[in-house]
């Protein structure tokens, strides 16, 4: 745990990782679109509105030379500061990842020395938005996220930027009426999955004790009807810091991996075959690719946008 200082409702610490940490790249997976009420970038600062086990917290993360300054406000401030090192990648060990046999990955790693896999230590806070993103475009899911956070979230405490909201608790997600899910564009299948998840929220949070993900964590998450391999991976990547959980079933990731590594698109099976030499680090490889600036060709079919709000 870092040593923090307290000033009124504010808690401060400085995390010294002993190596490079790219704050924005490391925290980027937490951002749900450009208008995310729980994530804001202001200059080099990253603001987060977090739902912690101790309550809501506003957190600002500031690069400070070879260190990272973290300040937090709210009843969850001390918890947020105590877990800030893991949020910024402490325990995420890249030393065994060997990309020397692939020039693209070797260059991507060279240009992203500060990339780390985060670990939020909050399962439900990562699971609910992942459920929202099932089988729809990111634009639809992020619109729903904004609507529900602004309506049912908690205004971010302290001096957080305006219009930031802390996501609801598991119980508060469970109390949202069906018609509000409908207005947000979330059809009954996905909202029912959220309801099933919130009923076993304490058990899901206990999976954090199992370490940085893996097959057991994935199986526990997938034991809930409506949660499949993709949703489990998206959750474990963020909540547990799982380094080996690529998003199988994603509309974009397999093609991105295929184009980057072979110059052509692949499906899920093809992606897993390409990533097999880096088993144990497969999500790290995907993050290297996605953060490298590489873009796959834009031709090809687009996912059809379905608006469930008017059905």
Automatic annotation (TrEMBL):
SUPFAM superfamilies in the record, alphabetically?
DNA-glycosylase (SSF48150)
Q: Which domain of life is it from?
A: Bacteria
What keywords sit in the KW lines? DNA damage, DNA repair
User: What name has this protein been given in UniProt?
Assistant: DNA-3-methyladenine glycosylase 2 family protein
């Amino acid at each position: 745990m870092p040593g923090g200082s307290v000033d009124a409702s504010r808690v401060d610490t400085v995390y010294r990782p002993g190596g490079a940490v790219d704050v924005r790249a490391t925290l980027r997976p937490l951002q749900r679109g450009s208008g995310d009420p729980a994530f804001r970038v202001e200059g080099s600062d990253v603001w987060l509105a977090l739902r912690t086990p101790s309550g809501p917290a506003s957190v600002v993360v500031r690069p400070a030379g070879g260190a990272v300054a973290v300040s937090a406000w709210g009843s969850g401030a001390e918890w947020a500061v105590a877990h800030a090192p893991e949020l910024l990648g402490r325990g995420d060990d890249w030393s065994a990842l060997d990309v020397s046999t692939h020039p693209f990955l070797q260059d991507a790693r060279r240009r992203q020395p500060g990339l780390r896999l985060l670990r939020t230590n909050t399962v439900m806070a990562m699971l609910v938005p992942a459920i929202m993103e099932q089988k729809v475009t990111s634009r639809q899911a992020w619109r729903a996220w904004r609507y529900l956070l602004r309506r049912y979230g908690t205004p971010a405490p302290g001096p957080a930027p305006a219009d930031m909201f802390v996501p609801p608790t598991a119980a508060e997600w469970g109390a949202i009426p069906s018609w509000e899910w409908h207005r947000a564009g979330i059809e009954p299948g996905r909202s029912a999955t959220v309801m099933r998840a919130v009923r076993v929220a304490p058990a899901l949070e206990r999976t954090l004790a199992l370490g940085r993900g893996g097959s057991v964590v994935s199986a526990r998450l997938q034991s809930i009807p409506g949660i499949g391999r993709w949703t489990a991976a998206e959750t474990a990547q963020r909540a547990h810091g799982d380094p080996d959980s690529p998003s199988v079933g994603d509309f974009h990731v397999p093609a991105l991996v295929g184009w980057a590594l072979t110059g052509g698109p692949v499906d899920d099976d093809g992606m897993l075959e390409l990533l097999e030499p880096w088993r144990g680090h497969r999500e790290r490889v995907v993050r290297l690719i996605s953060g490298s600036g590489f873009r796959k060709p834009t031709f090809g079919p687009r996912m059809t946008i379905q608006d469930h709000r008017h059905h």
